[in-house]
User: Fold this.
Amino acid sequence: MRRLLAAVFCVAAVLAACDDDSTPPPASPPPHTETYPDAGTRPDAGTQEPWACQRSTTVHNAPLSLLTGLQLEMSRATSPRQRTEAIDRFVAQVEAQGGRPLVSDAQAGRPRVAFFVRGEAGRDTFIAGDFNGWSATATPLVQVRDTDLYVAEVEVPRTGPQPYKLVKGGEFVADPGARHVAWDNLNRYDVGQFNSLVYPGLQDAAKGRLTAWYGVPATALGDARDVFVYTPAAYDGPECPALPVMYLHDGNESLTRESFAEAADSHYAARPRDAAVLVFIALPDQAVRLAQYTFPPARAPEWPTPRGDDYLAFIRDDLMPRVEAAWRVKTGPRETGIAGASLGGLMSVYAGFQMPETFGFVGTQSGTLFWPHDGEVDRDDGNAMVVRAGQEPVVPVRFYVDHGSPVAGCTRDGEEGGDDCQSNLQFVEALRGRGYSVAHWNEPGAEHDWFFWKRRLPKLLCSFRNADPAVCGL
Assistant:
């Protein structure tokens, strides 16, 4: 029996330290503390101990003891089916208890970490991070004999969050089984990448953190996309606050082109009372952006069929219930916002008019508010959102609108450096003419670019939490 256990798990260069971790797993929270899946405690859980919501307590990956349990099950398995079932249970336990990688208890003498990948994705795959100088070949995942499990165990010092990536075919990618991530600080001028974190609880406590949900299904769209949930520093504080929540489009680019998380950190450090949970919704593929961020009618046969209504149905019916079940967020339209830039701004405005019972705040940055059009700016386009603002019954929604304009002043959408200023100004005028609460900011000389949207993001975040534009310098 012992020889079988050794043959299964003590693979050369993989589990060099195959001795059991004698330190017991950390104690569970008291029975009266009902925890959320992704950290913290429920708002109705009663008075909490000071540690209940602190990052060092609630933010962690799955314990290494799960691997010890798998070792024991595998030693008892007498058939391939039993081995497969044992690995199935192991993978489910890892997901339920914090995700990959597996880490030893903080009190253990040696900071052991086990990385693993299941299936063909694990073949010829390596782990790279600060602990091995980001080497693409130094730390291989090795197949556990007679299984589809690939494992590497290394010592990783608890000197910080310890970012890492998987490496396959020379390509560095985030670990899809890791829940806690941080931008890798490389602006690829396209959809960027994240590092996965070994010790997420050791991130800077004065800043927010990102939790990744990979492959969130969208029922109405028939696809899936990644979602990144930003929780500000206040979320992990001893007060265990429930916070308002805002949903943002282009969720990958806004975090990896010009870090919106960094801008949020700066704003919430200056104005902690504005803190909110931000849900960044990525697209499954940039090719579907035009379809999913627009609404009927399609103004030319060659354009994709607009699917904005299905996209909003995904947010309302699939994503929001999941967010509300996993995080301490306030509910109802007064505490719920939606925002985006360019076409994302257009879709946010559309959401406000279509779903005022869901979204009570709309933020648009350089919104494509001349939509729909026939392919030529300012010709037979109708400026659909301007028309709705000026002619349809008023809905209980607050708006934040920002954009750039030529330094000399805005004349029309199509001029160089215009940043769609004409239709945005028309939209603001239509809103104010109907008595809407509107916060507006025009930045002369600003371009249609993530750099400027990040710079103006604090004004949007402030407006979400404050109905008086003067409070936000507007």
In short: Residues 81 and 87 are 10 Å apart (CA to CA).
